[in-house]
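Board notes (copied after class):
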Amino acid sequence: MLLELDSDQRFWRDTLRDALAKECPATLVRSVAEDGADTGALWQTYLDMGWTELTDPAEAVELGLLVEGLGAATDPTPFLATMTQFNPLVGALADPKRSGAAVYDGVTAARTATGWVLDGTCRHVLDGDRADRLAVVTPAGVFVVTPEQVRARRVQVFDPVLHVAEVTLPGVEVDDAARVSGADVERARQVAQTGMALTMVGACQRVLDLVLEHVGSRKQFDVLIGSFQAVQHKAADMHVAIERARALAYFAALTLAEGDPRSRMAAMMAKAGAGECQSLVFKHGVQLFGAMGFTWENDVQFPLKRAKAGELMLGGAAEHRARITEESLAAARLGV
């Protein structure tokens, strides 16, 4: 397993960085947060560039690089939900021209003479209020439904440009054609966790970049504050935390790309590492900006909020650490 990016992947990463700087600048994110600006044109740009066609499991690292870049840019489109949550659940049914969302829990499926009845409510569904299709996970399998078949209500969350919804299926009747054949829910969850971890890593990296820009230009007593040892120590701690989280996340992406049996543990470690990273980066990032870090006018708020919101979705660091501990102890008892 190669643990470093090859030349093509590095070129892809740099290309993404340049494209996102042009297509998804902070001014666009602010306009979405303040004025509810439409993101349709940006989504269409992603479609035109072929970014939604990265559906091959072997392209997990390339997709990860893209997701990290979008996390840094605080992407306001349904790309993350579509590519890392919906598509892995539906497999060949994925449509690169349509967005999707995943309903992971809270819904049951009852067999009828003509098909199935889906009933229940799932809270905190990423992009559940604006996706073209929804993949609903039930004990009886995964079903694909349309927005017209559900009731979705967007709820307010910490990140002002993130769409999170409460989705209710009030006894929705579907036929057998709506049921996804051979859906691998466990692997899909691993892809979702890894994607969220990489989004958080990208957001944390953006925070650090803005911090370094600030401390390299801000003066106190006619001296750059970036020359103060206390400031340097905090910036170094942020860098170390980000590199650790990034390494864990890309290892998880590699295990998914290669079908490695360690992917379950790797995905949980990636999400836990990203959660711990954002906690430190959030604290130091705001502190190093001083009072400016608390103001609405400062763009550092957007990546900070994206990283924090990511921690609250798909299980936090404490939850995943507990699962990792339980599984490690169980494996040790079995002598695995």
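Comment from the instructor: The two ends are 21 Å apart (CA to CA). The first helix runs from residue 7 to 23.
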